[in-house]
User: Fold this.
Amino acid sequence: MADFEDDDPDTNSEEENDDAAQAAQFEAELQRQIALLPPELYQTMQPLLLLGSVANYMLLGHDEDPVPLALKELLGYDLDTLKVITGVTDNPSLARVMAAHTLQLFDFVVVGRLVYESAINEPLQAYLGRNKAAEADFTGPREYMLTFGESLLENIAQYLAAGDADLAEELRLRRLQTESIFARLDDTLRPFYPPGHSPEEIQAESMDAADEAEDAEEPAVHVTFNEGQRVTLGTALRLPYILAELAETPFGRALGGVRRLRRKALERLAARLAASSAEEPFSLSRSELLRLYQAAQVCALSTVTDVLATGSLEDVMRDAAADDEETPEEMAAMAHHAREVMLAMMGGFVEVVEVNHPDDEEVAEAKAEISRLAALLAE
Assistant:
């Protein structure tokens, strides 16, 4: 039986030499084209590339959404393709993309223009208005992208078709199919933001800063807590945002909208309470007093009511105390005792605040806000 040998090394060497020669030829032609480009070309195209990049990222960031999936299936266009275009930083890299990724540049401009004509346009414009790095020396990013993008598309189409009517028709159909995707799926579009840049995150950051500024004001009261009170009140401060993040009940979901129970402010006060000394009075600014007052009410409600959709905190504590050495009756007794201790401490603090501020409008409003939430527990 004859042995089959590997490919002829001389043949492989010839193919490698041919590939190297072609690569060298392409590089030489590319360098020739770069030399012919106007020196200001990249600077001229930079605004369009920037505006198109922001639009494309805002669309493709949710890469499992219907429009990005359809673009990937139809065009092979996705975030990896986009990175090729956004890698342009100067004339040589622009020339390389124009020569080696012309069709991808065509898709980039088509998609970018369509984003500015889609449901994403409004949040996109708002984002550009906030992001100083995305500003350019012109007015109307949408109008700029639509006008100059169209001119660029015409030039790219002429270059790609090179007078071939069939190729020109293929490009026209490619664009029409892309436009059809946006037209059919416009109601599925949602903007993607870099971390920390969504409107909700920006609003939360502003509100957190306002909380911190209020908390830094002069102390309104000085309270002496014993060790047990400090630990229990610290737990109460962490409970609202835990319930809000679980969001398994209407009560828990509503907690996320309580102004004084935002997570950062609660964590900051809890950390300060934990680091304090039981022998020294603990100072509370006006906002911190109201925050701790509302957290104590939430904790008191949670000890006796089903805030988790699986039972009250007493039920949770009873289940958490289970081990082989304890009977169900002992676990129930321990949980019930813990509930009574927490309820007494929370109720005591709430009462102290109300007795010392009987006619305070903010205290009354804070109490009414939690009472409205408590009504959700009966639903």
About this structure: The longest strand covers residues 219-223. Strands lie at 219-223, 282-285. Residues 133-138 have pLDDT under 50 and may be disordered.
